[in-house]
Design brief:
Blueprint (H helix, E strand, L loop, with lengths): L2 H11 L5 H20 L4 E3 L3 E8 L2 E4 L6 E4 L2 E8 L1 H7 L2
Antiparallel strand pairs: 1-2, 2-5, 3-4
Helix pairs in contact: 1-2
Amino acid sequence: MIRSELVTAVADAHPHLTAREAERVVGTIFDSIIDALAEGRRVELRGFGAFSTRARDARTGRNPRTGDAVDVEAKRVPHFKAGKDLRERLNA
C-alpha cells in the first residue's frame, strides 16, 4: 500500500472527510511519528508495533565503482518491531 492508497482508505472509511482532509490526517500522523523519532523518542502503536531508532557506528566502507575506501559517519536509522497482534494476524 502506498500513501495515496492509505489516504483513499481513510476517506472511504470516514465519508464525512474530504480527500484533502484525509490527506491532512495521514500527513499529520506521519509527521508526528517522524518528529518523535527525530527527538530520539519511541513511538508505540498498540497492536501494530513500535518505531524506534538505532545507532550505527562510524565505519570504513568501499566505493563499489572504484573500490576506494570511504569513511561513513555514525548515524541513527529507523527500526520497526511488529507487535504481537500484527505477528499473529500475519501467521494465522
